[in-house]
Amino acid sequence: MAQFEIKEEFYLDGKPFKILSGAIQYFRLHPNQWAETLHNLKALGYNTVETYIPWSLHEPHEGQFVTDGLLDFEAYFKLVQEMGLHLIVRPTPYICAEFDFGGMPAWLLNYPNMRFRVNNPDFLEKVGNFYDWLFPKLLPYQSTEGGPILMMQVENEYGSYAEDKEYLRSIAKMMKDRGVTVPLFTSDGTWIEALESGTLIEDDIFLTGNFGSQPKENTEALANFMEKYGKKWPLMCTEFWDGWFNRWGEPIVRREAEDLAKDVKDLMAIGNLNLFLLRGGTNFGFISGCSARKHTDLPQVTSYDFDAPITEWGVPTEKYYAVQRVTRELFPDIQQAEPIIRQAKGYGKFPVVGTANLLEVAPVITEEILLDYPQAMEKIHQNHGYILYRSMIKNQFHEERLKAIDAHDRCQFYINQKYLATQYRDEIGDEMLFSADTEQIQVDVLVENLGRVNYGYKLGAPSQSKGVKGGIMINHQFRKGWQHYALPFDSKMLEKLECNRPSPDKVEAPTFYRFEVEMDDIQDTFIDCSAYGKGCISVNGFNLGRYWNIGPIQYLYVPSGFLKEKNEFIVFETENVRVDCLQLVDQPVFKDEV
Questions:
Q1: What's the confidence (pLDDT) of residue 594?
Q2: What is the annotated signal peptide range for this record (predicted)?
Q3: Is the dihedral of CA 262, 265, 269, 274 positive or negative?
C-alpha cells in the first residue's frame, strides 16, 4: 500500500516523488489500445496517467449506468496498476474536455429549476446519485487501499465559470462522505480571479494550474497565491496543453515540437506536470462538444487528435521524441524505452450493396411518438444525433409558407419526401415557400444536434437543448400534430435498419448506404470521406462519428478492435450526395490535401 503525501513536495512512501504524467482518456480509445498507449507513456520516462470520468457516458439516462467496452474504467485502472503506473482521476460533474455539454448528461436539461455547477439542490441531488454509483467502484483503486490512484479532482476549472465556494465544498464533502481518502485537488487558470474563485485552499485542498506555455510565469503565479494563504505546496500543472482541439470549417491547429519540448523541460525543472494530452483520441458517436459564441456556436470535429505527442491513430510524433529527449536531458538516470508504433492498412474500394431512404424507413427503425407540438430531443429522452419531425397537412393549392421557430442546430426540410432547403445558424427561422400537387402534403423536418457547448457562459442555456422547441409554422400558424422519430444512430436503431434498395439515380432525401467488407489481415484503417457531404458512419453497429466536407478532417479513424473478418459499414449521408463507394485508406485525409 503506497503512501502518497503532499507537503513541500510530493512524497511516495516517504520519498520525494515528481509527478510526470500524461492524459490518456480511456473512453476515446478502443480498449485493445490501452496497454500499448500506457507502454508509450512509460517509454517517455513518465510515471503517472491522468483521466476524466465522463458522467454523461456512464449515466446516459437517469438511473441507468454503463461500464462496458470503452467505458470499463475498472479494467483500465487494473491495467494501469499492472504496468506499475500511478493514476490521477478526475471524477468531476463537469469535465469540459471538448465533450458534449462538458460531460454532464443531457437529461439534466429536462429539469427547469436546475442551475448547473452551483449550489443548487436539484443539481447536487443528481450528482449525489451518480456518486452513489461511482465511488464504490473507485474506492478500491485508491493508493490508500493499495491501488494506483494518487489523488482526485473536486471540480474542473471552476474559477473560469463561477465563484460559488459552497458548491465546491458540497462536491468535496460528497466525495469524502463516500469514502475518498486520497488527497483532493482543484485545477484552474493561474490568473488571480480564477484562483480565488476556483480553489479551496482555505479548506486545505491542494491546488494546481492549467496552462500551455510560459511555465515560469504561471508557476510563479501559483506559488504567489499559495504564499498568500501560508502554503508551500509543490507546483503542479494538471493540464499542460501540448496541442489544441479543432472545429469544423477551420484550419488544423498545430504547435512546433521544439517549442513544446522547451516549455516541458522548463516546467519539469520547476515542478510537476500532466501532458494534456499524451495521446489523441476520437470523439466516437456524437460526444464532441461545441465552442460558445455570442450568436452561433462552433461545433468541434470528430477527431480529438489534439496535435498530441501521440496521434489519434497511435503513432508517436516529432513532439513525442522531443519530449522524450528533454526528459532524458533533465533526468539522465530515468528509464525510457522505444515506443510502440501502430500500423494502419488501406483495404481499397467497396461497392454499395444496398440503400434505404430515411424518410421511408424512419417509422421502422425507431419508435413513432405523436405529440401536439414539436418537442426538444431531451423531452423524448434522446441525447444525441438527429430527430425527425413529420406532419401531414391539407393542400390548399396555393403557395405555402414554412418556418421552424427556435431550433438547434441544423434543419433540413422535405416536402413529399423531396428536398426543400437546409437552414443553419442565422438562417433558422427564415420563411420558405413550397407547393405540391397532392391532396395531402407530407412535411418532414430533420434536425441535427451538432454538439452542446462544453465551456463558458452558455452551459445550461436554452440553446443547449436540441431540436425544435418553439414550433413549426405553416402559413403563419403553429401546426398541431407532429410525429417524432428519435435517430440516435446507435446499435439498437441500426439493428432494425434494412438497406435493400439499389442506389437511387437522384438523391433527394437522407440516405443510408450499406457496405460489406471482408478482411483477412485486420489492422487499423481510415475511411476516406472526401467525396461525401455530411453525415455519420457506423461499423458493425458502432457509431464512429461525424464527417463533414467543410473539413478540416475528411476521414474517420477505424481502430482494428471494431473490425472482424466480415464487416458491415453504414454511411448515413444527409446532403443529397450519392455515395458510390466506401474507400478504406492507410492514412488520414485532410481538406487541404484533397
A1: 37
A2: none
A3: positive
